[in-house]
Design goal:
Layout (H helix, E strand, L loop, with lengths): L11 H12 L4 H12 L12 H5 L3 H7 L6 H9 L2 H13 L2 H10 L3 H8 L23 H15 L47 H12 L10 H20 L7 H24 L5 H26 L1
Helix pairs in contact: 1-5, 10-13, 11-12, 12-13
């Protein structure tokens, strides 16, 4: 197992780039767990924060457009002292992030079969050994020194915090009824979130969310090139969002159901925007924008599945 916090860089540019990669990684929850394990005793007062907006400030839009390099060193470092904010920031960039984040997702996210292969690996677990915290020499101690203290503690602990991500469920093919024989005016369909084989509440929460991600990926099974076909395809996906909103999702905990429905409302709104743009913009450009939206949706579901396991 790789201990994530041992790899925290010390320079502003390296830290910002490293954090960008963590935010699109399936193992962000492991990093958060490690940081939370040491945060209580090793959290410098100079970096205490209580909200994501408090860190990002007026740089929020810049972060969504071009990543954490828009922040100064103290802002990047502060994210590490309140680990839960990293999960909040991950949701923010997955839903609202620009093309920088989409390119990063495409370059950093491994193929699903590779993820499944890596997550099937097992290692023996050892209980963490609690050591006396490393005390700062003075109140002016730099964050670089804090990083060294964290790394030292984790090395002494040996394997530190163990966080296991689950096996991904088998990928199931989803059926479609929008072949050449389908009516072009049809809205409801049997692909995407309208797939009757979906919403299996007997699954574990992780399996359930991964299945939803697979259902959403059916968008890419057909590539419409005309305005009429693209509008039908978008309308069908939007209908599936309505089906998703109305499903009971009893496989999920109440707070995760609410998370899913909130995200679904956002995704549905974006799909409606793409649908409305078809008549006034280049069809292939709109399709590309819809691809980005649905890729973010899929990645959000995959990452949430890893988090709830």
């Amino acid at each position: 197992m790789t201990i994530q916090i041992l790899n925290i860089p010390d320079t502003r540019q390296e830290l910002a780039t490293w954090l960008d990669r963590q935010l699109v990684d399936l193992h962000l929850a492991q990093l958060v767990a490690e940081l939370e394990y040491v945060a209580e005793d090793l959290n410098p007062a100079d970096f205490e924060v209580d909200s994501l907006d408090g860190i990002l400030g007026d740089r929020r839009d810049s972060v969504l457009e071009s990543g954490l390099r828009s922040l100064d060193y103290d802002q990047c470092a502060a994210l590490l002292t309140c680990p839960a904010l990293l999960l909040e920031l991950q949701e923010l960039v997955l839903i609202h992030g620009g093309r920088y984040w989409q390119r990063l997702l495409e370059s950093e996210t491994p193929a699903p079969q590779q993820v499944a292969k890596e997550q099937r690996k097992t290692e023996p677990k050892s209980a963490p050994v609690l050591l006396e915290p490393v005390k700062p020499a003075s109140s002016s101690r730099t964050f670089a020194g804090w990083i060294v203290a964290v790394a030292t503690l984790v090395v002494l602990v040996s394997i530190g915090v163990w966080y296991q991500t689950p096996d991904l469920p088998p990928v199931n093919q989803v059926a479609e009824n929008d072949g050449p024989e389908a009516e072009p005016t049809m809205i409801a369909s049997t692909w995407g979130f309208d797939n009757p084989a979906g919403f299996d509440d007997s699954q574990t929460p992780s399996e359930y969310l991964n299945q939803l991600a697979e259902m959403a990926s059916a968008w890419f099974n057909k590539r419409p090139e005309s305005a009429e076909d693209l509008k039908v395809r978008l309308a069908q996906f939007r209908h599936g969002c309505e089906t998703l909103l109305n499903a009971p999702h009893t496989a999920l905990a109440p707070e995760d159901r609410e998370w899913l429905r909130e995200r679904c409302r956002t995704w549905a709104s974006k799909i409606e925007t793409h649908h409305d743009a078809v008549d006034s913009e280049n069809v292939l450009a709109v399709r590309e924008e819809a691809d980005e939206t649905i890729n973010r949706l899929i990645n959000a579901l995959r990452m949430k599945a890893s988090e709830v396991a």
